[in-house]
Specification:
The complex is a heteropentamer of chains A (137), B (135), C (292), D (322) and E (650). Chain B is built from 4 helices and 5 strands; from the N terminus they run E-H-E-H-E-H-E-H-E. Chain B is of the alpha/beta class and 135 residues long. Classes of the chains: A mainly alpha (137), B alpha/beta (135), C alpha/beta (292), D alpha/beta (322), E alpha/beta (650). Chains C and E meet through loops of C and strand 24 of E.
Chain lengths: 137, 135, 292, 322, 650
């Protein structure tokens, strides 16, 4: 995140941003960057971009970087961020929106074969189905 | 060319002051309109408006303060309520509803005042003379 | 009281002990449930997209079945199912257009569902509804002296619209356990996520969470940890052993479904518990406390 | 002493006003005793020529009901004016235009089209309309022409007094007749009823809240109205506040809101506009969308607010549709 | 018909260049009612005014119409002038043929025709204008100040110093309010009590101030200049006339309860003064905690009182007063920490609010100014301050900024550092709002000199771990989550208007905004007035504000009150809307449209009555009246109807 980034009106109101808004239905502009979402996120240590920065990047239109990020795939949809947000931003929906942006461009993130076999045999159905619901369209 | 006759009611605090500003700024507008100064747009009674139509007015304009700016807190909303229902009713009376207009014009909106008056005058001009028979 | 019951996939397999103990507890409290004749997968994780109504078909199908059953209430034991079904209702209710679209996708279902005809209920709320006094009276082992850490997880508390209690500071499990004669242990991580389905992709997250959650419960002096979610259960029970392999100082704690504990306190026959399904064997503690 | 000559005449009306005279019951005998009826088409046979033959001013008083909308009515009322000392506009139609006055919302052609062609039960494939001249075997007949406009009596002739109501209540008729017979007459142009609006005598006035506000408009046909509650407070349109009192609250007592047949009070010219102004003020909102919805929810405001007074309130018939 | 004189002003060439004045005069000469018409170059000049006055006399005119510039400019001029020749000023009307005619039209014919229409319509108005006298309202020159905090004290003193009587009503037994609880004040760090107590004493001893503590407003009626108020004094069980404030009863009272003044940290007795410098310095008995009231035994205070001042039979009492103006300065409460379950509020003893920390810092506080934490009395070495707790949180708490927290939290951290030199203060913040004289410098000093660590981000969770309070937050500037094992956590809780503000607002008929604060008449130009005439607002009851702003606003309320009191009568525009009782049926449609509650139904008479003093002459009710009984004076329906006809007449 040290590289200079160009900010422009074109980027801030790009089609990608609109599509994300359509999928998620979230008004990201209510965010005032208190960071409570990141502070409360149980998986933030595993993320490359913390949730509050994700929202900031949506505000600035950096969707191309977000779709490359691991963050949406680390998110477990526990909704803690949404509940904690003082401004009513549904961050969890934004994460879902980012996953969908990737999945709808014909890219599947999950793969049964990648799972450790020993673990796979033990896993309850809800773990597997839950995971695939979020990683395969 | 048909010269419409337009009666207007302007609230003292906003629209009449806006009209004064248009004058002080030496803006010009169509002379077809003649204003009556009222304390508040809420004083304008539909009876006065129909009086105007009955006596041959081709258009009636009411000017009040913008919502939230009324000198009397809520008078402009009273005007709004009355005009909304009145527009519906005059349509049934066979008076074109566009002959009646309510506009919010503030004391600072001299320019807007002239634009509203000119635009309204032209609209009424297009509508032509109001048609009625005296009973 | 008559209500419909929706088991969901895991309660028929890995969480058999949850289903058996829950139904036994309810029966003991005088409530019988009708399992939906023909139920479908709930969809597991509620789709949070606004624009894709296809995702809602799975839960709506089940809700249609529930409406057809004629019972107003639908019990969902699995918290994932509870969350998905309840959020589906929130998403579609009062929106005729959405419902219309969803119905167009469903050829076999003839019943129209509008969103308000079925109440999805979880077992904690149901027990409170039956009455804490009644619960108290049904307890036979009143002097077990158990210190219990109640773990809520996410699905019953979030988002706010479907929360069964305060998302920040819930008390319903503690209330129930206090009525059942247990001592409650408050620990700061009782509402924090266990890592959920990320066990599949990123088991490290779950390990990290388990270490925090279990560690905190142990530190605050709990004998047992109870919960309701089969996925939390798997994550917190199964992973404890993995952590202990890496870190000998890590102290484990047995994990039970809250209904298992209630059944034991009610003196119901122990064969419903399937203790073999537990990774951390709770029997030593239970024996020590005189519950087995 | 000769009894004063009195004429009753009917123009465009329903006949209810004639009934109202009959409704005087036994009192009618007193009236008949005291006067000499020279014209009463509904009850007795007189010819126009009989009246024409009378000296100008020889009829003490003519009671004329109904509004004026045909050439025949026009001729008759002018004739009676000439022959009468006093003319009393009897009932809402002659006073205000009444229900027939609502015809001024449409053109004559529209009305004829509706009645003679468009009504589903009418079978008139050749679109035959009534004609004023008609040739029959005996020769040519002339029928009265229907005017383009409906007028109140005072829009055609000078009127001395007004007896309001649809129909006027017997006690007001009796009071008026007695006043005329005794010569104890008020100022010319007076409406022979109370000066305050109906709320003054309304049996439900005590139920009115201190601050009257409404959040939606209810239609009578779709509302159960409590028998003791102010209609307006319940959101039901009642013209009571804009209508002269004196009717005996007959509608209110039958759990029907006031429709305005007594016309406005003397300080008001335009009953409909005045009522609209007061009524819209009641709406408790400052939200433009809600205000729009409120205006939309008032069905047929012109018909409702001017039900009886269209012709007298507007004093003009607009045909400005564009 | 009235005789109207029309005076047409040329305004130099301003009117005369576009309006054909000779033609205008010629055409209007015979207009019905126009008895005299004359034009003049500058009608507003002295000779012009003289001309008008002379003609009124010589032509025996009943009313005049001056056709000139906007009435905003010279209506008053001419109305003053006509009064000198005994014409009622309301018979003088202005026809605006400059701003709304000659200046905005170019074509002479058109402008002349329009000027004619304007003048004719104003002539029609003048024909039916009545003589009117301004409504004279007497003024009771006594003020009521509600609330005895710094705002109320400042307002009361400023009014009293000008020679007028003030009743200062305070709910507690002593004045002083929140400011008395504070330790030092930002940005100067002078001792709050040191600057406040002299003012309290002044207020207590002022010959024009009647202190009514332990009292509340019970009822009010009337209007500006003429309010009637009823004040309730709660039962004190101590006869203050006899009591000298010696304190013996307090000393001997065996019952101790947590002190509200010390935020529950210290104790007080059941008979008590809230703090030693109380004004008046006389105790009250808290009957909820008094042993005698609870058990029927004790009465120790009664026994020891040398003045026989204890009176267990005392009841609440009421006084009724007439006042001309009211200042509402009821202050604020701190949003309770109990509402912050995620921060352990109410559960963790070492999570406290800022006001409690003020008491900890205060030299007169329960720990004598030593910073010790509530749980075990240890000196905290790591201390975390969290800002915006409950504020700026529309989802869960309050949407507004509480304004004072940025500065007082900075001050807290600084004062802590001054007391505990080896301690480390941390402040979690979202924004630092340090707009104020010396505020930014103060904030800089905290960072540079006192090494206060500012962390930009919110805290998601606070929990107890052994004897530490663990704070889990984020520093968004470094992008990392942070965890601090603190000894004490201070929450800068939101502030909100004092309890009971809704009831008070209802009683006073003033409005409150969506957050519960009192609404000012105009956010910029009338910031100390309420929407009800004669009622003024000061301090945090109107919005969160710090001491300097509070004092400034309180002083401004005094200016408003004095302005009111400087007048012998209040003159009220007489163009109010009256009621013709002969016509009014009491339908009540006019009542709800009145924004000033000036109209009420007299059910006995069956008519609506208007309070002429409350009526502000908008005329909304006249338009709403369906029977024509409500008519605005000199703006009657007939006048409007005639004006419209005059404009439209060919």
């Amino acid at each position: 995140m040290t590289k200079n980034k160009q900010i422009s009106s074109h980027r801030i109101s790009s089609e990608d941003v609109d599509q994300l808004k359509d999928i998620s239905g979230v008004n990201v502009y209510a965010c005032y960057q208190c960071g409570n979402c990141s502070s409360a996120c149980p998986a933030v240590e595993f993320m490359d971009i913390p949730p509050h920065q994700v929202i900031r990047m949506v505000q600035l239109g950096f969707i191309d970087e977000l779709v490359k990020s691991e963050t949406p795939w680390i998110c477990a949809a526990c909704i803690t961020c949404t509940v904690k947000c003082p401004r009513g931003v549904d961050i969890a929906r934004v994460m879902e929106g980012l996953r969908q942006l990737v999945l709808r461009s014909d890219f599947e993130h999950g793969n049964l074969c990648d799972i450790d076999e020993k673990l796979r045999k033990k896993l309850p159905q809800i773990a597997l189905i839950g995971n695939f619901r979020k990683t395969i369209l | 060319m048909f010269e419409p006759r337009i009666v207007a009611f302007f609230c003292k605090w906003c629209t009449s002051a806006g009209a004064d500003l248009a004058g002080t700024s030496r803006m010009t507008y169509k002379p077809n309109i003649t204003g009556i100064r009222v304390m508040c747009s809420s004083r304008v009674d539909p009876e006065h408006i129909l009086d105007a139509f009955k006596n041959g007015a081709d258009g009636v304009l009411i000017g009040g303060c913008h919502p939230g700016d009324c000198h009397y807190q809520s008078g402009n909303y009273q005007a709004l309520k009355r005009v909304k229902l009145l527009k519906k009713m005059i349509k049934d009376l066979n008076i074109n509803e566009n002959r009646l207009r309510l506009e919010w014009i503030s004391a600072a909106e001299g320019k807007r005042f002239t634009e509203v008056v000119d635009e309204f005058t032209e609209e009424i001009r297009k509508l032509g003379h109001i048609q009625y028979t005296v009973l | 009281m008559q209500l419909s019951y929706y088991p969901g996939c895991t309660l028929k397999t890995d969480a058999k002990n949850f289903e058996k103990s829950a139904l036994a507890v309810l029966e003991h409290l005088g409530v019988s449930v009708d399992e939906l004749a023909d139920w479908y997968c709930c969809g597991v994780c509620f789709s949070q997209t606004r624009d894709n109504l296809m995702q809602q078909i799975a839960p709506v199908r089940t809700l249609v079945k529930a409406k057809e059953s004629g019972n107003r209430q639908l019990l969902a034991l699995c918290t994932m199912c509870y969350n998905t079904l309840k959020r589906s209702i929130e998403f579609i209710k009062d929106d005729a257009e959405k419902m219309e679209t969803i119905h167009q996708f469903m050829d076999l279902e003839t019943t129209q569902f509008y969103g308000n005809e079925v109440d999805v209920v979880d077992i904690l709320t149901l027990i409170k509804q039956i009455g804490l006094e009644k619960l108290k009276n049904s307890i036979v082992k009143t002097d077990a002296g158990l210190k219990i850490a109640s773990y809520y997880g996410c699905m019953l508390l979030r988002p706010k619209e479907i929360a069964i209690d305060s998302p920040d500071d819930p008390v319903i499990m503690e209330e129930i356990l206090a009525s059942a004669g247990c001592e409650n242990v408050y620990f700061p991580f009782r509402t924090e996520c266990c890592g959920s389905y990320q066990i599949v992709n990123e088991p490290e997250i779950v390990k990290d969470r388990t270490r925090k959650i279990v560690g905190s419960a142990v530190k605050n002096g709990a004998d047992l940890m109870v919960m309701l979610c089969p996925l939390c259960y798997f994550n917190l029970d199964e992973i404890q052993q993995d952590i202990q392999k890496e870190d000998k100082s890590f102290q484990t704690i047995p994990v039970l479904y809250i209904t298992q504990l209630l059944a034991l306190l009610m003196g119901l026959k122990p064969d419903i518990h399937d203790f073999s399904l537990h990774s951390i064997d709770p029997r030593p503690v239970l024996k020590m406390k005189g519950l087995l | 002493m000769t009894k004063p000559k009195v004429a009753f005449y009917w123009c465009a009306s329903c006949g209810g006003c004639e009934e109202a005279v009959v409704d005087l019951a036994e009192d009618i005998l007193k009236v008949v005793d005291a006067i000499d009826i020279v014209l009463w088409p509904v009850a007795m046979d007189f010819k126009k020529s009989d009246i024409e033959a009378m000296a100008d001013g020889s009829i003490a008083v003519s009671f004329i009901n109904g509004s004026v909308r045909t050439s025949e009515q026009d001729e008759w009322v002018k004739l009676l004016r000439k022959k009468s000392g006093l003319v009393v506009a009897f009932g809402a139609c002659s006073h205000l235009g009444g229900i027939p006055g609502l015809a001024n919302l449409s053109s004559r052609q529209q009305l004829l089209d509706t009645v003679y062609v468009q009504v589903p039960t009418v079978n008139n494939p050749n679109k035959i309309y009534p004609q004023t001249i008609c040739t029959v075997a005996e020769g040519e007949l002339e029928l009265p022409a229907i005017h383009e406009e409906v007028r109140t009596l005072d829009q055609v002739i000078d009127v001395d007094y007004y007896l309001p109501g649809c129909a006027p209540p017997p006690n007001l008729i009796m009071d008026a007749v007695l006043a005329i017979l005794s010569g104890n007459l008020p100022e010319k142009g007076t409406v022979l009823a109370l000066d305050k609006s109906l709320c003054d005598t309304c049996p439900r006035k005590e139920s009115k809240p201190d601050k009257l506000k409404i959040s939606d408009v209810k239609r009578i046909s779709m509302t159960i109205i409590p028998e003791d509650k102010c209609f307006l407070a319940e959101g039901v349109i009642c013209l009571g506040p804009a209508t002269r009192s004196g009717c005996g609250e007959r509608c209110i007592n039958a759990n029907m809101p006031c429709r305005g047949c007594f016309g406005p009070t003397k300080a008001v010219q335009d009953q409909g506009a005045k009522f609209l102004s007061g009524f819209s003020s009641l709406f408790d909102s400052e939200d433009e969308a809600e205000i729009n919805a409120f205006a939309e929810s008032v069905i047929d405001p012109a018909g409702l607010f001017y039900m009886f007074s269209l012709a007298s309130s507007l004093k003009a018939k607009f045909h400005d549709r564009s | 018909m009235k005789k109207i004189g029309v005076f047409v002003c040329h305004c130099g060439i301003n009117i005369a260049s576009t309006v054909d004045i000779p033609k205008l005069v010629e055409d209007l000469k015979n207009y019905p009612g126009v008895a005299y018409i004359q034009d003049y170059k500058y009608m507003c000049s002295d000779p012009g005014q003289t001309l008008v006055k002379e003609k009124i006399k010589s032509e025996k005119l009943d009313a005049i119409v001056v056709a000139a510039c906007s009435p905003t400019l010279h209506e008053n001029t001419f109305r003053m002038a006509v009064q000198t020749v005994d014409m009622n000023p309301y018979n003088c009307e202005i026809a605006n043929i400059r701003e709304q005619c000659s200046w905005v039209h170019k074509n002479i014919t058109e402008a002349t025709e329009k000027a004619k229409r304007i003048i004719k319509s104003v002539v029609e108005k003048a024909l039916l204008d009545e003589d009117l006298e301004p409504v004279k309202v007497p003024v009771t020159r006594k003020a009521l100040v509600l609330g005895g905090g710094i705002a109320g004290i400042q307002s009361a003193l400023s009014i009293a110093n000008s020679g007028y009587d003030v009743i200062l009503v305070e709910r507690q037994s002593s004045i002083g309010g929140r400011m008395a609880q504070l330790s030092e004040t930002f940005p100067t760090l002078d001792c709050s009590q040191c600057i406040l107590t002299p003012k309290m004493v002044d207020a207590g001893q002022h010959e024009n101030i009647r202190l009514m503590t332990y009292s509340e407003l019970e009822d009010i009626s009337g209007f500006v200049g003429n309010f009637k108020v009823k004040i309730k004094q709660k039962a004190k069980y101590v006869n203050w006339d006899k009591c000298t404030g010696c304190g013996l009863c307090i000393e001997k009272c065996p019952k101790k309860v947590p002190s509200e003044f010390d935020q529950g940290l210290g104790k007080r007795k059941a008979v008590y003064t809230p703090f030693p410098q109380a004004v008046p310095n006389k105790p009250v008995i808290d009957c909820e905690n008094c042993t005698y009231f609870k058990t029927g035994k004790c009465r120790l205070c009664e026994k020891v009182c040398p003045f026989d001042a204890i009176d267990f039979n005392e009841t609440e009492s009421f006084i009724e007063e007439e006042v001309g103006a009211i200042v509402v300065a009821t202050g604020y409460d701190v949003y309770p920490v109990l509402n912050m379950s995620e921060y352990g509020g109410g559960k963790i003893p070492d999570v406290i609010d800022g006001l409690t920390f003020e008491r900890i810092l205060s030299a007169s506080g329960p720990s004598g100014g030593e910073v010790r934490r509530p749980s075990d009395g240890k000196i905290p070495k790591e201390i975390v301050f969290i800002k915006c707790v409950g504020s700026r949180d529309p989802e869960n708490h309050y949407p507004y900024c509480s304004k004072i927290c940025c500065m007082y939290t900075t001050k807290h951290a600084m004062l802590y550092k001054h007391r505990v030199h080896d301690g480390q203060p941390y402040i979690f913040y979202m924004d630092v709002r340090a707009g104020g004289k010396g505020y930014e410098e103060f904030y800089q000093r905290a960072q540079e000199e006192d090494k206060v660590v500012f962390l930009r981000g919110k805290v998601s969770k606070v929990y107890q771990d052994d004897d530490k309070v663990v704070v889990c937050g984020i520093d968004t500037l470094s992008g990392s989550n942070v965890e601090i094992r603190a000894d004490l956590v201070v929450l800068a809780m939101a502030i909100r208007p004092s309890k009971g503000i809704e009831e008070l607002a209802q009683l006073l008929k003033i409005s409150i905004d969506q957050n519960g604060f009192l609404t000012e008449a105009h956010p910029k130009l009338r910031p100390v007035e309420s929407l009800s005439a004669g009622i003024y607002l000061a301090g945090c009851a109107q919005a969160p504000k710090d001491i300097p702003d509070t004092v400034a606003q309180a002083t401004a309320t005094a200016a408003m009150v004095l302005n009111l009191f400087s007048r012998e009568y209040l003159l009220h525009e007489p163009i109010i809307t009256g009621v013709d009782e002969e016509l009014c049926s009491g339908c009540g449609l006019c009542i709800a449209v009145c924004p000033y509650d000036a109209r009420k139904t007299n059910r006995e008479k069956g008519v609506v009555e208007v309070n002429e003093i409350l009526c502000e002459a908008c005329g909304a009710c006249a338009a709403a009246c369906p029977s024509g009984a409500a008519q605005q004076r000199n703006f009657t329906d007939t006048q409007f109807s005639n004006m419209v006809k005059a404009i439209l007449a060919e």
